[in-house]
Amino acid sequence: MAKRLTQFERRRQRLRTQIRRKSGGRPRLSVHRSSKNIYAQVIDDAAGRTLAAASTLDASLRDKGGADTDAAKAVGKLIAERAKSAGIEQVVFDRGGFIYHGRVKALADAAREGGLDF
């Protein structure tokens, strides 16, 4: 019997399929948002490896707090910095089923300001 997926899981799968089809081999900037923290990873899907990661749990961001747009901006700048140091300039943005609004949008804008192209 097939497992019934939630609306969030269906949206996530649909987005991930579109991103893989249209990415052109670029790494994926994946965002996960919880009620207390926000996480970002740059993932190479071809190799199945995480190339760079940042979250509000990092030691340098602990004083920022984890549940507001200011913390998301700090994570966006940090992930852009780490991705550029790993030699990554262009990524595909994966909002992970979350609406592009608030903290997710703040992280994306900060990553763009930090030099990532998507």
UniProtKB/TrEMBL annotation:
<dbReference type="InterPro" id="IPR057268">
    <property type="entry name" value="Ribosomal_L18"/>
</dbReference>
<keyword id="KW-0687">Ribonucleoprotein</keyword>
<dbReference type="GO" id="GO:0008097">
    <property type="term" value="F:5S rRNA binding"/>
</dbReference>
<feature type="compositionally biased region" description="Basic residues">
    <location>
        <begin position="11"/>
        <end position="31"/>
    </location>
</feature>
<dbReference type="Pfam" id="PF00861">
    <property type="entry name" value="Ribosomal_L18p"/>
</dbReference>
<comment type="function">
    <text>This is one of the proteins that bind and probably mediate the attachment of the 5S RNA into the large ribosomal subunit, where it forms part of the central protuberance.</text>
</comment>
<keyword id="KW-0694">RNA-binding</keyword>
<dbReference type="GO" id="GO:0022625">
    <property type="term" value="C:cytosolic large ribosomal subunit"/>
</dbReference>
<keyword id="KW-0689">Ribosomal protein</keyword>
<protein>
    <recommendedName>
        <fullName>Large ribosomal subunit protein uL18</fullName>
    </recommendedName>
</protein>
<keyword id="KW-0699">rRNA-binding</keyword>
<dbReference type="GO" id="GO:0006412">
    <property type="term" value="P:translation"/>
</dbReference>
<dbReference type="InterPro" id="IPR005484">
    <property type="entry name" value="Ribosomal_uL18_bac/plant/anim"/>
</dbReference>
<comment type="similarity">
    <text>Belongs to the universal ribosomal protein uL18 family.</text>
</comment>
<dbReference type="InterPro" id="IPR004389">
    <property type="entry name" value="Ribosomal_uL18_bac-type"/>
</dbReference>
<dbReference type="GO" id="GO:0003735">
    <property type="term" value="F:structural constituent of ribosome"/>
</dbReference>
<feature type="region of interest" description="Disordered">
    <location>
        <begin position="1"/>
        <end position="31"/>
    </location>
</feature>
<comment type="subunit">
    <text>Part of the 50S ribosomal subunit; part of the 5S rRNA/L5/L18/L25 subcomplex. Contacts the 5S and 23S rRNAs.</text>
</comment>
<feature type="compositionally biased region" description="Basic and acidic residues">
    <location>
        <begin position="1"/>
        <end position="10"/>
    </location>
</feature>
